Amino acid sequence: xxxxxxxxxxxxxxxxxxxxxxxxxxxxxxxxxxxxxxxxxxxxxxxxxxxxxxxxxxxxxxxxxxxxxxxxxxxxxxxxxxxxxxxxxxxxxxxxxxxxxxxxxxxxxxxxxxxxxxxxxxxxxxxxxxxxxxx
Length: 135
Hints:
Structural class: mainly alpha
Number of strands: 0
């Protein structure tokens, strides 16, 4: 695989992940406003998690040129952050359903903080890949 091919696949991975990010934000906003049931939120989070796993494993299977291996690892680590966000949100849903409102709220707030962390890293990676593609 050439560097250019790898960068295009990286850009596509980020694009697909960006769609999942938007879906996660939509769920979080609905949860924060109480506009979605815990069951619906849980189902939606599970679907996103499965999509994200597919994106991750497809990207992990790529064989980048040696110069690009660090970029691949950086993107994969960033995708893992989004996976962790989904796990935290699932824990929030479970705790809330069980009546542990305080602990649940802590998980929800932590998931929002981690989502912001993901967004920052995601934005930098997208800019980096775009820059490399223009070279």
